[in-house]
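Form P-L/3: holo structure prediction, ligand 2-acetamido-2-deoxy-beta-D-glucopyranose.
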Amino acid sequence: LKIDVETGNGVIADYYVVAGCFCLSGFHLEGSVLWNDAILPMPNDETVHHTPRRFKRGWMWKQFFLQEEYTGTDNQYIGKLHSDLDRGDGTVMYVLTGEGAGTIFVIDANSGDLHATRSLDREEKPYYSLRAQAVNKKNGIPLEPETEFIVKLHDINDNEPKFEKEVYTANVPERSHVGTSVIQVTAHDADDEMFGLSAKLVYSISQGHPYFSVESNTGIIRTALGPSDMDREQREHYQVVIEAKDMGGQRGGLTGSTTVNITLTDVNDNPPQFSQSIYQFSIPELAKAGEVVGRVRAVDADIGRNAEMVFTLTSGDGLDVFDVTTDRNTQEGILTVKKPLDYEKKKSYTLQIQVRNTHPDPRFVSVDSKDSATVRVNVEDVDEPPRFERSSYILEVKEDAAVGTAIGSVSAVDPDARRSPVKYTIDRHTDVDRIFNVHAGNGSIFLQKPLDRENLAWHNISVIAAEFNDPQQTSRVPVYIRVLDVNDNAPTLAYLYDTFVCENYKSGQVKKIQTITAVDRDEPKDGHRFFFSLAPESPRANFSVRDNGDNTASIFTRRTGFRRSQKSTYLVSVVISDRDIPMQSSTSTLTIRVCTCTRDGTMELCNAEALSGSAGLSTGALVAILLCVLILLLIVVLFAALKRQKKKEPLIISKEDVRDNVVSYNDEGGGEEDTQAFDIGALRHPEAMEESNKLRRDILPSEPLYPPPPLRRATAASARDNADVRDFINQRVQEHDGSPTAPPYDSLATYAYEGNGSVAESLSSLGSASSEGAQDYNYLSEWGPRFRKLADMYGGEESDWDC
Ligand SMILES: *[C@@H]1O[C@H](CO)[C@@H](O)[C@H](O)[C@H]1NC(C)=O
Ligand SMILES: *[C@@H]1O[C@H](CO)[C@@H](O)[C@H](O)[C@H]1NC(C)=O
Ligand SMILES: *[C@@H]1O[C@H](CO)[C@@H](O)[C@H](O)[C@H]1NC(C)=O
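OUTPUT (holo model):
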């Protein structure tokens, strides 16, 4: 075989395969023995056929091959380097450089024999690139340019396949079809995939037959048995061992293995089944609705959602009496009472109960697959209290019914088999006034006291029935007694009418002066109907009454010329009657005043006497009011007196006023250094203020307090005198500020500072004072009014204020 190969340095060389095997893999040529026409002659081989074409003479050792993992004891021979300039006369020396030169690879400098000193691992480093040069042995001059070559390691199968994981876990639904893919496992072999079969892997299953199989070339694990054999309820967990073998699975290949834990997941392939075919329960007859009778259990081999089930009652004689629900936690059926039970009526029930899955899987179990069982419920007898015929009674009685009248009756019986006799009583809490009574033996209710509908229209009482033999067994029933109306009240005027008649009605004029209505406390079924008329004894000369037919009546004057001076009030008696039986009537008297009126009939002036009755106050009340006013006055006077006394109190007690005034006086007193004087907080809290007075130590007095230095008269021209005044004032300020006994609200300081910015004139009063003597403090007179005001407030004398 002749192959054209372009070598690294751009030379096309013809290669001939002479012997041995080779393979082409990827982009580089590998062969055990390749021959190139440049190597001439090939030792021990005269048969090589070569072409006449030659491009270049030179090194011809582009590639050497070396077996990895060499186990021999001597150095492994790789090949021989030869330059065609070497004529075998010993003048040429071969020099090796590059990866591993001198350590891994050694060269015989004379012969060019190349050896590897130790065994090498292809998986560690697949090839080494080296450089060789032929030099003159004597002078070391290179005979030819350096040439690169490669020593390539031949792969041997020295690595076993390794799986990505030591243990795999996988799930597959139970009852899957044959060949359902479960998981893919993959192994890797470090050996050369390009060469030989060292990395050619074949998967096989060594444990897990016959349930699973593995695809030999892909490592995909599949189920190997049919749905009927892959039943989770039979066996849930499987351990499968997969082997990977290199050398294409041939004998002598290396193997690696892994474990795959496969779990079958649940599908709903089992219907629920009752654990018993007959369930027997008993329940007391007094069990309330919702009370649990018992629990039934069905088993389902599936788990989780696939085991969820519903229970239903399908047939039997208690379908409307009982109910069944499912306990979501335990999947049990809970039988409960739906309707009241009665042992005396029915002593036992038989029911058919059914169970089915909530989420059936039609692939495995029919959707209507269900299981049934029989439930028998025995009702237990309970000693029950008497039972009233009705849950409540409404009785009616006329309000005029005589005492002793039977109003009605209630009735109760003992539901138990022995029918104990019943005794009736009235719950006295519901009939405190003992208006009613019940016959203990037959339940007749009697009236004990007269009734009045207008007072109380309903009497709602409770009647208690107790078993005669067992008085603990009681029950009660409400009895609503309605009092029926009887016409026992006469109609009366609806209001107290304030009626008047004007003096100046024109003659001949019949004037309506009032419309009246009536009220009646009775409540006739058809409503009220009132009749009005003038009382027969009432003289008809002055007023008349006209029934308007609509339960109202009008009062008219019959004549004119009413005079206040003659007669100030008239009394008119009106008879009002109703239509009921027995008829009731009353006579009411209207008071009609005579008044002077304006022209349009508005009342102007009436007799005072008539008014005083309704609006006046009794003398007793008047006296009481007067007394109250007097006491109030007394309190006010006392209060004022106390207040006055308070004002006179010494300075330290009326702190609040002081503080307020001082603050408003713009307290510049101590100057800026006197921080405590500015401490409004101290002023607001008297205790703190007193304490700060004691601690006050801003400026210590440097001069005795009294007497102050004599003052000379200050004139406008004299700057020296001004200075004196200033000195004096400053001194005083210091004294005052430094004085531990000084009050914190020193208003004098304000004055002193005024001097600071002033030219002498403004201190005129001070000046005049100073001329009279050192002890004279009339310089304060300008400020006198203010201090007097303060003194007034503090209750002291102006002279007390030594400042
Ligand atoms: C109950 O007994 C009383 C007294 O004997 C009698 O007057 C009344 O009519 C009886 N009531 C009934 C409902 O029998
Ligand atoms: C008594 O019962 C009647 C009917 O239920 C009701 O209308 C009435 O208000 C009740 N009276 C009292 C005082 O509870
Ligand atoms: C009717 O008025 C006259 C004149 O004012 C008077 O004398 C007489 O008493 C009055 N009749 C009645 C019943 O008030």
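COMMENT: The chain has six domains: 2-154, 162-265, 273-380, 387-484, 492-619, 675-802.
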